[in-house]
Amino acid sequence: MKTIFLLALGSLSCAALLGCGDDTVAPAAKDASVDHVVTFDGATTLDTGSDADAGAPAEAGHDGGTDSGTEGGAPGLPPAPVLGTQIDRMGRPAINTALNHTFDPACTTTSCPAKDEYNADDVITHWPSYVPQFEGNLAIYDGLDGNCGNQAGFAAATGYATLAGVLADDRLWVNTAAATCQQYLALEFNALGVTNTDCGGRTPNENAIDLTFNVVAGMLNVAGLPSNPGPLTNGIKAPSAPAGTTFPYLQPPH
What is d(CA 164, CA 51) in angstroms, rounded to the nearest whole number? Predict the structure, then answer.
């Protein structure tokens, strides 16, 4: 399977910028079989039916009630809690911080309404509206090395719209057909013309911030993409303790 990006493209006048002048898988039919999975593209997922045997009596729950075994809670366990209002996103790190109202005087070190609204926005069809805001800030970062127009995805005809569109779709994309998963932003790089065969996503040990710095500053070291993202760094080269190899991949607190 190949993951497809829909990029938000648009025209941009360089003079208007501040700096350099940012599977659907159909659910399985409901049935009464026991704990089974549906396989697609090398991945597995629980179906949407009941996991209880047809005609089997409901099990007694640990709280004294009964548990039908339907999805939302394993037999003997309470149902999942009802989710409240979204207050943050868990997509790509630093996107909201670096590209959304970065130089807004209404934002302080403790409060920024525009950033809070971005974090609470769970309507994916609304996300392209952030592209113009990202474009202006990407233009500023593009000038950090004194060379305008060398940022990933920049083109004279579209300006910073391509990279802004990729980053505004603030989700981690994964190509399930790939055999290796060692490169953060791998699918995004493919969309920007840096061909690779990595699955994308983000592993816990990836130096995501340094890579992001170099992408937006136009200082990406393409030849050393997996291990050497470029000259800009926040000084943190590796985690204090590498992530574990089994879920949830966390080390003991220290």
Answer: 44
